[in-house]
Amino acid sequence: MKKIIVVLGIILVASCKQEVKETKEFEAKEVETISQTAEPDKKKSLSPHTETMAMVGDAHIHIDYTSPGVRNRIVFGGLLPYDAIWQAGAHMATWIEMNKDLTIDGKMLKAGKYGFFVIPNQEEWTVIFNSNWDQHGKDEYDEKDDVLRFSTTPRISENIQEHLEYTVNKTSETSGTIKMSWEKVTIEFPFEVK
């Protein structure tokens, strides 16, 4: 009887070890399968989401935009017609946020978050800060929501800026410039921190 119990015990232990081994092999296979499908192929965006920030004195200025590429296209006067509103980026409207009041073109722009739009032209661009900062493209743009509008003269270069780029440059403890460059065009305007 003792022999039968010992044999049954050995069979039971061997059976348990086999089940544990099979379970571990199954779990390993399952983990392997999951890890293969967990990382989908990520295509590089043609218009990557980008942001730029700077401190000018105690003013924090943050610009959030999507940066399209030229990709061998005529952008201004082609892809983007002259004298038409543009969200100054791709997809969602570009937005600018500042924690201090700024003076731009002799006008006060209160601290806050604004949609940034432009109207390109060969001779002069209209720069617009709009209270509706969270919109797709210019779909919901309404001139009545403009809080500041002014004109600036574009600079034309022979060199191509492939991707749209914004920069905030500090010129003193209380002043700076905001610059947008794309294709062969650059616009830049000064501001003062209040």
Write structural notes for this entry:
The protein is α+β, with helices and mostly antiparallel strands and 194 residues long. It has two domains: 1-41; 49-193, no CATH class. It contains one helix and ten strands, in the order H-E-E-E-E-E-E-E-E-E-E. The chain has one helix at residues 2-38; strands spanning 49-56, 59-66, 94-98, 102-104, 107-109, 112-119, 125-130, 146-152, 155-172, 175-193. The strands form two sheets. The chain has a six-stranded antiparallel β-sheet with strand order 1-2-3-6-7-8, with no helix packed on it. A hairpin with a 2-residue loop joins strand 9 and strand 10.
Gist of the model:
With 194 residues, the protein is an alpha+beta fold.
Strand content: 35-45%
* Average predicted local confidence, pLDDT: 85
What count of domains describes the coordinates?
2
Alpha plus pi helix count: 1
Quaternary status: single chain
What topology, given as strand order, has the largest sheet?
1-2-3-6-7-8
Shape: globular
Structural class: alpha+beta
Biggest beta sheet attributes: 6 strands, antiparallel
InterPro entries: DUF2911 (IPR021314)
Protein name: DUF2911 domain-containing protein
Organism: Maribacter cobaltidurans
What would the keywords be for this entry?
194 residues, alpha+beta, 2 domains, 6-stranded antiparallel beta sheet, 4-stranded antiparallel beta sheet, 1 helix, 10 strands, 19% helix, 44% strand, globular, DUF2911 domain-containing protein, DUF2911
